[in-house]
Amino acid sequence: MPSILSISGVSKTYATGFTALKEVNLDIQRGEIFALLGPNGAGKTTLISIVCGIVNRSSGTVTVDGHDINKDYRAARSLIGLVPQELTIDAFESVWATVNYSRGLFGKPANPAFVEKVLRDLSLWDKKDAKAITLSGGMKRRLMIAKALSHEPRVLFLDEPTAGVDVELRQDMWAMVRRLREDGVTIILTTHYIEEAEAMADRVGVINRGEIILVENKVELMRKLGRKRLVLELRNPLTAIPEAFSRYALELSPDGGQLTYTYDNQAERPGVASLIRDLEAGGIQFRDIDTQNSSLEEIFVNLVRREP
Amino acid sequence: MNLRAVWAIYRMEMARAFRTVLQSIVSPVISTSLYFVVFGSAIGSRITEIDGISYGAFIVPGLIMLSLLTQSISNASFAIYFPKFVGSIYELLSAPVSYLEIVIAYVGGAATKSIILGLIILATASLFVPLTILHPFWMLTFLVLTAVTFSLFGFIIGIWAKSFEQLQLVPLLIITPLTFLGGSFYSINMLPGIWRTVTLFNPVVYLISGFRWSFYGKSDVSVGVSLGMTVVFLLVCITIVAWIFRTGYRLRN
Hints:
The complex is a heterodimer of chains A (308) and B (253). In chain A, 33% of the residues lie in helices and 29% in strands. Chain A is α/β, with parallel strands linked by helices. In chain A, strands 6-7-8-3-9-10 form a six-stranded mixed β-sheet, sandwiched between helices. Chain A has a four-stranded antiparallel β-sheet with strand order 2-1-4-5. Chain A has a four-stranded antiparallel β-sheet with strand order 12-13-11-14. In chain A, helix 3 (95-105) runs parallel beside helix 5 (137-149). Chain A is elongated and about 75 Å long. The model of chain A has no long low-confidence stretch (mean pLDDT 86). In chain B, a hairpin with a 2-residue loop joins strand 1 and strand 2. Chain B is globular, with a radius of gyration of 19 Å. Chain B has ten helices and two strands, in the order ααββαααααααα. Chain B has one domain. In chain B, helix 3 packs antiparallel against helix 5, helix 3 crosses helix 9 and helix 6 (136-160) runs parallel beside helix 10. The longest helix of chain B has 32 residues, at 55-86. Chain B has 253 residues and is an all-alpha fold. Chain B has a two-stranded antiparallel sheet with strand order 1-2. Chain B has helices at 3-19, 21-43, 55-86, 89-94, 99-128, 136-160, 164-180, 193-199, 203-216, 223-247; strands at residues 49-50, 53-54. Chains A and B meet through helix 2 and helix 3 of A and helix 1, helix 3 and helix 4 of B.
């Protein structure tokens, strides 16, 4: 699949001397949902801001659908919609005025029918004459999305779209993102909620300390880096893990009734069979057994921790 | 050229003025009327005329300039500072608009508002004193040039300012004193020799003098010099704005 966004060798050092990005290379494929994960201060927002033209980069090149963001900034920027992390709206404008303003700002002719559709899709139509300042936090977030969608972008950046949003609205947003993808819009989202990436993303990128440390298909990533857990419910609680089992990565629950074995599911010999054999031989009986896959969150935490 | 963007920004700025009509239009009209009461009636009863012009009529061009300068600066500086302050400037910076378009829209909006205001003050003044405008073309030229120049200056202040305090600093500490000392309420020929020379370093003197000439055909300094100084200040502001956008000063860094 051809890439719609190409970031090559992008670095950013702020006037304060802080280096936010180091030689970042990233290609986003057309029509995919890409989740950019990273701890606070990793460089996610700086990277998005550079692509959108809000922050000047120190070096490197960025092209959007083949258009250089500097030399051909009009073509590049007109393809991009941005929903920033902060709720930053002109508080005294009406919903209708501010969304139409965004459309005009991006050079699109007035299209009341389209703007109405966007507002209806985001359950904002009833509030079209309300001033932004009177909206609830969740509605302001929808308004930010409406402004970004008003000019029909082909690439949509969602910077922490569901931060501070209730569960219902989060589900609505996920549904909206999927609808947009069906319409061919490429979506790049940054998030702290790993479940969001897990539920929606096609690919995941992890950024830490200004460097992209991994870009991988989500399913592949979970398969490769995923760890499994074997949970054994013991018939008789233990006070401590017997010495004979020290070679296994075992954890005993505080009440002594549950034994957890964590193992690498890619390993040639995960050790599950031998553990069960050894437990039987040692007279440790269990009444139930369960296995769990590690979540993207655990994979992410492990990746970031692994960095020096 | 992204004319739709220019229009969108311009319309938004004008809508703000009409939304805050009390602050934008009514309050300067009231304060101008008060100037007439205080300066025109109280002082005017003692100074009957200057250069053959009745004192009440003499101060009209100066009063219009006073409002034009302060309002152009405050309109433009607030217009660009407010989105910076609330963060909504992200949208402007990420939009497919050129620097020139941003300046045309914001400065155009601010200048339009202050020109409308200048004309309202002119109409208000005509209720108090009989007015003559000998050179209407030049009157409008000075009005537009000054409004555009000081809106540009306000735009620069709005980008430079990091706080509301800084936003008020330049208009309050520099522009208002320069306007009061720039011959709004007197002819600089009335000053003693040394102060007359000092006053010539005040750029506002040239604006007021040229503007007054367009009304009554009388000026403190030659009208060519007045026009020249206005254009020089305009070019200085354009140069600074161009530098701001080229470097991303306080916008993209």
